[in-house]
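Progress note, sequence design subtask.
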């Protein structure tokens, strides 16, 4: 019996929430509660364990578990009898998710979503799993058997429950505070490079077998490693990976933007959800690759990502939405993963003429029986994922037409199919606005705005920052994590601060508006006050006045998103260079020391932290341009610097036409760095060693030691 047959109108406690994920479950027959005191007090009073289910709105298997079990009257009846059930949106409450995903990994050796935790009313876990089917299959036990077994365990073996829960807690506590180790250095960088080289897929790019994730911070690290060492192989790994992803089905060839990951090793069949953070980090990776190589294909891909985000993922007020679902409806209303994105040969023939069909078949690899295998049945579905097997230049040669002609054809077909696709049922959009993910997108837009000289990107970044500071602050001025439907809530975590500070630093270097720099310093002070471990060093994930969970964790592993500590370390190094305040750099060094043991074991798992280490080790550049901000000579100096791939730099403008007491107050060392002989002047320091000031572009580039 399905929920719709059971009772289509009854709601549970989630109906009053803002999270799209929680609201999706508000009509389940399971008596869901949001995370909060009401649920825990009820569990204690009724002596019931907690069934904690954590997921997110664009998680395919979360939808499967809901349809199979949480909408099922039989399962719901059993859950309501045995448990107090709590639903958590992992994107809204990453603090809860970080804790219990660690629990799951410790107890089972793996983790993922949907995440299922059974715990005592005082939040101590004693059972963990990910997706659980209603009925057991392929050796796994189903919910209908697990729930009675847990109920028996809870009622008749309570001492064993407590003992198990306490052991889990002790294990998590033991791993929550890292131990200091040897200093990080060039050996660490070389080890990370060697590990990535061993994992590199020479045929298709990327750094794993299936499933294959983009992991753009690996790209950022390898670009810097190439810059440091001149390693052609490091640059090859970058380019092969970026090119393969752009050609593959993981990239939406019609509407642009990247899907979450590829289920195969050759980037064809994606998990079709689209996440804001992937767009932001990949846009940065492609933008930096363009800077490093000057290849227009990377610029084009970055611009395509922004086209998607500004068209489909931007709130009218300026913030950026979180994600788009993998699933969408077919003509019958059935939710099917990837339905929005795939095409049958028959569909294409109805839309285009025979000549177009012939060419699109060759260009986008269309097959009559479909061009991918269904994962469950290993049979072709009759549907096609549009993808390219070769770059346009090679394709044009095969087809005996010019590259210009081919690109024109591809664009015409893209628009034709895109407009047709717009008539389909669209995937659901998770329209909550998260400070941390918005910070990443603001950083990406700010970098691209100056590299590509694009004012639209800058305006979008500025509007998003204004949105956060106008709508996502608590009454006392503290930063909040989530905004949706007119409500901002959930005290900000370390990622919110670190990523937003990153964004503000990039905005300053793009605009030279001191207010962004000032705000980044204010947020950094707030971060130090509420998150810094004053004994060991490093940043906790949650603030000192946030909700108390079982343990207060420090995160450093760079997973799908870089860790807050990794980005905070880079922020501190940059702020140290900008302000001349060495305390910032000392704090950055402490972060490296705190996590050194962990990082030195498997450096390739901490590539964003190694990006920070690259900056710390140098060469790093401190550049001050003194001159009239409106003068062509000043603009030319700034432009030439922006054309270079100089990732380890800070740049400050000391405007002589509009003297800025604010920038002098923040960076008082620039007070005497003025124009020489009324000529725009560049003051350059490399690794804290300053060169003679220069007054023309060629000498400036020589001083920067660039070609």
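Output:
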């Amino acid at each position: 019996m399905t929920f719709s047959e059971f009772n289509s109108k009854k709601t549970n406690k989630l109906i009053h929430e803002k999270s799209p994920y929680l609201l999706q479950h508000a009509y389940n027959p399971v008596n869901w509660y949001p995370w909060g005191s009401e649920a825990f007090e009820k569990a204690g009073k009724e002596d019931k364990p907690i069934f904690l289910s954590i997921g997110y709105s664009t998680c395919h298997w979360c939808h499967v578990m809901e349809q199979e079990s949480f909408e099922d009257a039989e399962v719901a009846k059993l859950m309501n009898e045995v448990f107090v059930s709590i639903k958590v949106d992992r994107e809204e409450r990453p603090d809860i998710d970080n804790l219990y995903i660690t629990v799951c990994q410790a107890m089972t050796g793996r983790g993922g979503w949907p995440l299922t935790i059974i715990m005592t009313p005082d939040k101590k876990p004693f059972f963990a799993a990910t997706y659980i089917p209603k009925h057991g299959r392929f050796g796994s036990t189903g919910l209908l058997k697990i729930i009675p077994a847990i109920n028996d365990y809870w009622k008749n073996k309570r001492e064993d429950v407590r003992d198990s829960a306490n052991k889990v807690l002790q294990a998590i506590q033991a791993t929550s505070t890292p131990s200091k180790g040897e200093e990080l250095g060039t050996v660490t960088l070389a080890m990370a490079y060697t590990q990535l080289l061993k994992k590199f897929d020479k045929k298709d790019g990327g750094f794993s077998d299936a499933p294959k994730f983009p992991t753009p911070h690996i790209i950022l690290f390898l670009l810097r490693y190439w810059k440091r060492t001149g390693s052609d192989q490091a640059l090859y790994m970058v380019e092969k990976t970026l090119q393969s992803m752009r050609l593959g089905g993981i990239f939406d060839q019609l509407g642009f933007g990247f899907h979450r990951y590829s289920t195969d090793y050759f980037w064809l069949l994606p998990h079709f959800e689209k996440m804001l953070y992937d767009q932001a980090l990949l846009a940065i990776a492609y933008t930096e690759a363009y800077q490093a190589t000057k290849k227009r294909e990377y610029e084009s891909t970055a611009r395509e990502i922004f086209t998607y985000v500004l068209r489909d993922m931007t709130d009218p007020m300026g913030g950026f939405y979180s994600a788009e679902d993998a699933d969408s409806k077919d003509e019958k209303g059935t939710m099917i993963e990837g339905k929005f994105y795939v095409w049958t040969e028959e569909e294409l023939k109805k839309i285009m003429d025979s000549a177009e069909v012939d060419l699109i078949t060759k260009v986008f690899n269309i097959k009559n029986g479909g061009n991918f295998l269904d994962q469950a049945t290993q049979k072709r579905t009759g549907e096609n994922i549009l993808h390219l097997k070769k770059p346009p230049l090679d394709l044009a040669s095969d087809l005996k037409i010019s590259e210009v002609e081919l690109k024109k054809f591809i664009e015409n077909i893209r628009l034709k199919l895109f407009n047709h696709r717009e008539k389909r049922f669209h995937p659901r959009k998770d329209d909550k606005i998260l400070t941390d993910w918005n910070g990443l997108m603001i950083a990406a837009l700010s970098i691209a705005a100056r590299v590509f000289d694009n004012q639209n990107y800058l305006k979008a970044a500025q509007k998003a920052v204004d949105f956060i500071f106008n709508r996502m602050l608590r009454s006392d001025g503290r930063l909040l994590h989530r905004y949706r439907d007119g409500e901002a809530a959930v005290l900000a975590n370390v990622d919110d601060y670190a990523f937003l500070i990153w964004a503000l630093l990039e905005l300053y270097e793009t605009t030279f508006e001191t207010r962004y720099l000032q705000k980044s310093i204010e947020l950094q002070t707030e971060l130090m006050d509420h998150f810094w471990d004053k004994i060991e060093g490093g940043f906790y994930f949650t603030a000192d006045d946030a909700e108390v969970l079982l343990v207060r964790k420090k995160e450093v592993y760079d997973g799908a998103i870089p860790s807050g500590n990794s980005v905070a370390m880079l922020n501190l190094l940059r702020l140290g260079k900008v302000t001349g305040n060495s305390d910032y750099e000392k704090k950055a060094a402490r972060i490296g020391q705190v996590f050194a043991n962990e990082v030195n074991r498997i450096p390739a798992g901490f590539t964003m932290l190694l990006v920070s280490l690259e900056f710390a080790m140098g060469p790093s550049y401190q550049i001050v341009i003194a001159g009239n901000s409106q003068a062509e000579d000043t603009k030319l100096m700034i432009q030439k610097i922006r054309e270079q791939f100089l990732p380890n730099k800070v740049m400050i403008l000391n405007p002589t036409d509009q003297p800025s007491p604010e920038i002098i107050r923040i960076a008082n060392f620039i007070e005497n760095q003025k124009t020489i002989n009324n000529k725009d002047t560049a003051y350059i320091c490399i690794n804290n060693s300053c060169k003679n000031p220069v007054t023309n572009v060629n000498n400036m580039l020589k001083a920067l030691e660039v070609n």
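The longest helix spans residues 158-176. Work on this subtask will continue into the next period as scheduled.
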